[in-house]
């Protein structure tokens, strides 16, 4: 199994490239998003790869990060989703967008990818909600829908002079909002109220000033199967 290639970009087509690795050329298929981010022909390139081997086919698919590669593998595990559909979804949403859509049950965003119908999009969201946390916990791929409002609320507190005794209260309020957002995201991923609350509470105790994104990341790590 070929898991990663590093070499020189020999040529590029609309949906694949040729990587020259010490004289051996590998054809690698990539999403539109990955293709747009690749360097020019003749430059060094490095991609994580996933190989599909069937009786009549052997193809390599390339990804700029391990997280995106793992999302590809998960997407392809869903009935009716092949490598081309997976690349279309990752090309349209990126790994963070896929994480967000599945965490929030937003199948309409998945459907926006080329070649994905409503039934397939709904199946992806339902089938992956229990498997997604393990990938989301890798390298901080999390749902950050409330990060914007939380940041906006924090800015005035820093800009305006306030008595020192009021600062802990401001942090407490922010922590409560972050915990509520984290609980909501974990609930959307299918975790029960008690286990989600316990994980968020433990994460919050360890990081009292953590925002929603950090709490979700920490809670997912606590909830991930051990061993």
TrEMBL record:
The gene is ruvA. SMART domains: HhH1. The RuvA-RuvB-RuvC complex processes Holliday junction (HJ) DNA during genetic recombination and DNA repair, while the RuvA-RuvB complex plays an important role in the rescue of blocked DNA replication forks via replication fork reversal (RFR). RuvA specifically binds to HJ cruciform DNA, conferring on it an open structure. The RuvB hexamer acts as an ATP-dependent pump, pulling dsDNA into and through the RuvAB complex. HJ branch migration allows RuvC to scan DNA until it finds its consensus sequence, where it cleaves and resolves the cruciform DNA. Has three domains with a flexible linker between the domains II and III and assumes an 'L' shape. Domain III is highly mobile and contacts RuvB. Residues 73-92, 108-127 form the Helix-hairpin-helix DNA-binding motif class domain. Keywords: ATP-binding, Cytoplasm, DNA damage, DNA recombination, DNA repair, DNA-binding, Helicase, Hydrolase, Nucleotide-binding. Residues 152-173 are annotated as: Disordered. It is found in: Cytoplasm. Homotetramer. Forms an RuvA(8)-RuvB(12)-Holliday junction (HJ) complex. HJ DNA is sandwiched between 2 RuvA tetramers; dsDNA enters through RuvA and exits via RuvB. An RuvB hexamer assembles on each DNA strand where it exits the tetramer. Each RuvB hexamer is contacted by two RuvA subunits (via domain III) on 2 adjacent RuvB subunits; this complex drives branch migration. In the full resolvosome a probable DNA-RuvA(4)-RuvB(12)-RuvC(2) complex forms which resolves the HJ. Belongs to the RuvA family. GO terms for molecular function: ATP binding; four-way junction DNA binding; four-way junction helicase activity. It comes from Ruegeria marisrubri. Residues 176-227 are annotated as: Domain III. The keyword Oxidoreductase does not apply. InterPro entries: DNA_helicase_Holl-junc_RuvA_I (IPR013849), Hlx-hairpin-Hlx_DNA-bd_motif (IPR003583), NA-bd_OB-fold (IPR012340), RuvA (IPR000085), RuvA_2-like (IPR010994), RuvA_C (IPR011114), RuvA_C_sf (IPR036267). This is Holliday junction branch migration complex subunit RuvA. Residues 1-64 are annotated as: Domain I.
């Amino acid at each position: 199994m070929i898991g990663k290639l590093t070499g020189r970009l020999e040529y590029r087509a609309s949906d694949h490239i040729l990587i020259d690795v010490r004289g051996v050329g590998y054809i690698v298929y990539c999403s539109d998003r990955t293709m747009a981010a690749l360097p020019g022909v003749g430059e060094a390139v490095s991609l994580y790869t996933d190989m599909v081997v069937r009786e009549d086919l052997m193809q390599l698919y390339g990804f700029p990060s391990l997280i995106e590669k793992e999302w590809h593998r998960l997407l392809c595990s869903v009935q009716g989703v092949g490598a081309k559909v997976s690349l279309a979804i990752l090309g349209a949403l990126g790994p963070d967008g896929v994480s967000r859509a599945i965490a929030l049950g937003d199948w309409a965003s998945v459907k926006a990818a080329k070649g994905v119908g409503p039934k397939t999009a709904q199946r992806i969201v339902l089938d992956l909600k229990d498997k997604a946390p393990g990938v989301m916990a890798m390298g901080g791929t999390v749902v950050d829908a409330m990060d914007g409002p939380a940041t906006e609320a924090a800015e005035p507190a820093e800009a305006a002079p306030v008595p020192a005794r009021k600062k802990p209260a401001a942090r407490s309020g922010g922590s409560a909002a972050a915990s509520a957002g984290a609980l909501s995201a974990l609930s959307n991923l299918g975790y029960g109220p008690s286990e989600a609350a316990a994980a968020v509470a433990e994460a919050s105790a360890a990081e009292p000033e953590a925002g929603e994104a950090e709490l979700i990341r920490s809670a997912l790590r606590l909830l991930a199967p051990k061993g």
